[in-house]
Amino acid sequence: MFLALIRKQLKVFWRHPQELMILLLMPIGLITILSFALGSLMEGDSNSIEVKVAIVQHEDEQQELAAFLQESQGEMRTDVHSQESLKQMLPISMLVQLLEQEEMQQFITVSQIASSDMDALKKEGEYDVILEVPAGFTKQFYTSFFEKEEIPAFHVYLNEQKEIAATIVQNILESFQYQYSLMAELSSKGILTQEIKLPTADISSIVQTVNQQEPVSTSEYYTFSMTVMFILYISGTIASQAFLEKHMHIFDRILLANIHPIIYLLAVIVSTVFLSFIQVSIVFGVVYLMLDISFVQLPLHLFVTLMLAIVVGSMAALLSAANYRFNSAELSNVFSSVIVSILALFGGSFFNLSTFAPTLAIIGSWTPNGAALQSYLTIQQGGGLNQISSYLWILTAIAVICTAIAFLLFPRRGGIA
Amino acid sequence: MIEVVNLTKTFKKVNAVDDVSLYIEPGEIVGLLGPNGAGKSTTIAMMSTLIQPTTGDVLLQHTSILKNPTSLRKVLGVVPQEIALYEEMTARENLEFFGDVYKIPRLKLQERVRIVLAQIGLENEQKKLVKHYSGGMKRRLNIGVALLHEPEYLIMDEPTVGIDPQSRKYILETVKRLNKEANTAIIYTSHYMEEVEYLCDRIYIMDKGHIIAAGRKEEIKAILSSEKTIVLKLEKHSNDFVDALMKQGFLSNFQVNDEDISFSVAKNTDFLPMLLPLCEKHDIVLKSFHVKEPTLEDVFLHLTGRALRN
Known about the structure:
The structure holds 2 protein chains of 2 kinds.
Chain A: H1 2-14, H2 17-38, E1 51-57, H3 61-71, H4 80-88, H5 91-99, H6 102-105, E2 108-113, H7 118-124, E3 129-133, H8 137-147, E4 155-158, H9 163-188, H10 200-213, H11 218-247, H12 250-256, H13 261-291, H14 298-326, H15 330-347, H16 358-364, H17 368-380, H18 385-409
Chain B: E1 2-11, E2 14-24, E3 29-33, H1 40-47, E4 55-60, E5 63-64, H2 70-75, E6 76-79, H3 91-101, H4 106-119, H5 135-147, E7 153-157, H6 165-182, E8 185-190, H7 193-199, E9 202-207, E10 210-216, H8 217-221, E11 227-234, H9 239-246, E12 251-256, E13 260-266, H10 272-281, E14 286-292, H11 296-304
Parallel strand pairs in B: 3-8, 3-9, 6-7, 7-8
Antiparallel strand pairs in B: 1-2, 1-4, 4-5, 9-10, 11-13, 11-14, 12-13
Helix pairs in contact in B: 3-4, 5-6
């Protein structure tokens, strides 16, 4: 009998195509649109940054070094030890080596382009950054190093349409310049040893900073934020359908079959939990296939989904009970049309509140969708059960309170109003 | 036997039902007749345990069921005035769902669904979604759901509201057949006096929350046994003529339509010596007149001064 109530609920739900569209197609559509529309603007979107760097050299570094060494032959500064050091310090080679480090390769692609293609390269705009090394740069660089002459410059062309990419490379170049100068100074003082090569620690710290700021992609963020928003609509929909059962005296028939009203209310909760879980699973499945979003800790994701689904079930019970008590579907309609939007706003479904309104974000984490969203994001960032336990307690508390009020409110008899 | 004893239901200080008592014995059809708002639906909602009476009691086999309604619910089927069905499900799915809710075992339920579909004549339409049914088909299925658990008593609340004459006839025949073949006792509420008159052995007439008359059809009609109803068919009539008739002290219960006038008169009164000169005086052509048998409508009019469907 209990199963029959749940089966019926699923059947009725399934046969409302308009509601199915809202609950399944809309979140998937919005996730896709927002991911593509806001992907390049959102902070924390490391996947969307792909920096293409072209290096155009109008010289041969080795020949330039050889020419420098020949010119300075017999001088003190260029003894055998120094010559070896200088070979290790070819400036452009070191820069390329830095850009091609494993950490950098995740988002920087370096291409060596022939100098004859320089003009075409600037016109096409295919590359985000072009480094043009003029003829005689290396020789002049070493000369300036030892003679304290003016330091030569290579040209950097930044694609102004790719501001983030340009800024990243600019930061890397500045850091490189500083590290190189430091290393050269140490070398000149005889402090540099063979073991000390590229001072990569500081440079990689930049990369680490980038990673910490951008742990979750836009697609991932909106997958979770839209999911926790649209799951709320299920409670409103189920509560409206439950009221229709009262309005049409179907509930009376159920009571006349000696079904206790609380059993009916429990069936509302269980079927809502089931439907909510299915909805989230479908959305996750589709975005996994469409947007290649991976759920790094799937069991934890499913656990949070189950907790959220239980909260949605309890909210459906509360709204149903209120509809029955006040003999109107007004409350569930207001919930679907107004309250869900407010919850979504505070819960961070439209944008990440913590970036500009931390207090509101804290309040938002007390909403069911906000707590679930924070749980999902924490899990996606590699967090475990401990890190999300506070959010899970919030979800549990909401579920218990809603269910208790629903049971108190729900009428124990049917009949005419 | 189900008995309703001195039931009263008060909504916001208004007595929707006031001190109503009635009973139904196994195998009989009892009519509950009254205009809209008379308190019929509230009475049956209390009788079927859906709402608690303010005062009074409901007894099954002389035992109160107010505190524990389970025993009554087992033997009672209710056909609500509303179409209490899932429109997005087929007739069969609806019947199977309500059968499951009544905890009818699977095998037996299949058999019951087959029988009920035959009883309500929807075997060929059982796989159609209810939302695609006509009003009459929905009403039939509405009845069918209440029959699934083979109730001994069936309460039908205005089961023919808003349907075509053919479906109405089908439903009335189904009710008769149910009573005859399954010996189901039926309480039939309606504001159509001809339906109640056709179906019922005993009748309760309700108005403004009270039972104003009760008994067998003949007994109720006997309320009017001291009077006869005269219907005059006229070519045309004038207000002066009607006024003149009304001034005759021995006529009552006037109803004036375009071409006919009806009124009541004491059974032994010879009204022709008064009528014919009056027609002549007001230049009225009398096409015919006849003495009508009293109907429940006439009884209601007599008791309340209002027509049943007003």
